[in-house]
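Service request form, structural biology core

Requester: graduate student, group of Dr. S.
Request type: structure prediction, single chain
Budget code: on file
Notes: please return the result as structure tokens.

Sequence provided:
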Amino acid sequence: MKVAIIGGGPAGLYAAILLKKQRPSADITVYERNRADDTFGFGVVFSDATLDNFEKHDLPSYRRITQEFAYWDDIAVHFRGTVHRVGGNGFCGCSRQKLLLILQERARELGVVLQFEVDIDDESRFADADLILLADGVNSRFREKYAEHFQPEVDLRANKFAWMGSTRPLDAFTFIFQETEWGPFIAHAYQYEAGHSTWIFETDPETFERAGLTGLNETQSAARMAEIFGWFLDGHKLLTNRSMWRNFPMIRSKRWVKGNMVLLGDAKASAHFSIGSGTKLAMEDAIALAEAMAKAPDIKAALDVYEHGRREEVEKTQHAADVSLVWFEHVDRFWDFDPVQFAFGVMTRSKAITYDNLKLRAPDFVAEVEKSFARQVRSNGFDVSTDEPIVPLFQPFRLREMEVPNRAVMSPMCMYSAKEGVPGDFHLVHYGSRAIGGAGLIFTEMTCVSREARITPGCAGLWNDEQETAWRRIVDFVHGNSAARICLQLGHAGRKGATKLMWDGIDRPLDEGGWDVVSASPLPYFPDSQVPRELDRAGMNTVRDSFVAAAERGERCGFDMLELHCAHGYLLASFISPLTNTRTDEYGGSLENRLRFPIEIFEALRAVWPKHKPMSVRISATDWADGGVTGDDAVAIARAFAEAGVDLVDVSTGQTVRDGQPVYGRMFQTPFSDQVRNEARVATMCVGNITTADQANTILAAGRADLVALGRPHLVDPFFTMKAAAWYGADDAFCPPQYLPGKDQIFRNSARDRQDLEELRIKAKPKTRAELKAEATKPLAAE
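Core staff response, request fulfilled:
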């Protein structure tokens, strides 16, 4: 077998090593445009888990790499005169040049041919090759040459960054957040060998411009950074090596394989430096390709296995990197945070680290996070302990005069089980059991303001006396048997009305028994859906009056809070999104105009809803579709509702148009809550694939939301919150007297179970290489 590898970076060299080990008789040649000892950048960083992977696949190169590495266990966050150190991370740094030389030496040992200063721009010279690896880096010529086939997408991020080095020694992976007269600068720094450390400087484009960095050469840029971070550099110089300021390109390719050619490393996909995964991804690409070659019957099959088997892991890493880089791009959102909360946000920014696992590895740090959160709660008038605080999820919260005992919320979820809009016994049990189960706040499903406002024939409503009586029964039960508060969500289906029950075909039009539907514009949801009538001013008045009448009924029922549904493509959302609003009158066009009718409805509700009771609004913070609502729009929408008197923004996303493309994942909508809360400066509730109390604590402690709504967890476990209270020892959790023996038992069992689990995790966790190295260098005790 003949293999040509274009690019002598970590991806190309490691692939050559693994393929040559696998097929000793193979003719493998690596072609590199630079000299053997050329390198750009300074150090690379790997986690212990990545090194474990290297150890498994090529022991000789692993041993040489680990002999050259600098090890550390801590992350240090410097912010506003404070330093927070978090241990248990297990990182290793190495010179990029040293890494390349080690891989070159190992490749030669195995018989790989290395050719340097050979610039390849035409693969036709390898017509006799069985396999061609395109590992020519982030600016891959071949990816661009065959762009029509590979279909790369390059997202050039806004922030400017420059890669430099220093002789400053470091004993931790160090983040420095520095305020300047021009704006914030960030340093990402780590030691990679004795006397040398990598320094990546980052700032937003406006600060970059104000700081006068445009047009400066490497030496001048280094001097400016040394001036800004001189207090920490402590007299050590900054070093340059093609250290020009640039924008990071997030690269994704829809295809990785073309015939017998395959993209590897940065040529196919990039991951932001804030999670240190570029070289890791490149070398793990090589591992995945070699494993595919070992298992598949031929090269074509192997390349198919590689692309489809490897893609999910790459995309997961890229998603984590995306979330991380967005955090750094918008660090100004968090600049007024308490420093310990800020540091917690740094640690949990990519969702890879959560509250519980951070508490396991850095208990003292998380204890400070808990105290910081409790101090904020106490400053809002609650008599809570700041010396021995309970976790954030079980801290109280206030909206106007409504107080909730904890931050766990049962999300509004349509049950499609009402008869002519009347909630029945099912609803009494549904809402009552979740309230008894400990949730601090219960939301009703979208309750429709008229018969014509329903999504389906099974939707609940509040337009007549029978419905009002049924809802009052539910509210009275919640108040009489729990500490929960209950919120009435009012909505109008708009163009998504007259559809089947969810389990019969969600959003599909009824075969019979439908009704006329209305919307901002006459655009059907599906091509075969009913075409809605464009709502005129008279129709708007009717809708507004229906909302007001329903709110007045809700007050008579005794609801504690009122929410207006302006999300998910329903009537009011159809006015807000430009994808569903093509009007040319004063209710179309600009965002201000598109908000006019939803704000009018909200103000009409606020006028009749008691002043001491809070109101919220549910919005779709993005339509997940080109030309639709964006996160920045969501901030403007939240501000407009805040000016109208909203107390809480319920931040959801999507469901506006049928061809939206959501990016799903854990807590996938939380970044939008984060943006709205910390830019619009309004309280938010987050929702969306939040499944554990651990995740809820992470979100709250990092300041990404004020309340956490959980939907599916509550569907299968009415006592989700009580179980979480037992797990975290929240003894004050309310429990009806009939259930107290059960509460006592679960609290006792949970305390033991948590201790056992933590001990098991501590025992099962392998020691980091930093810990092993420290043990190996300890002097022997005197006999």
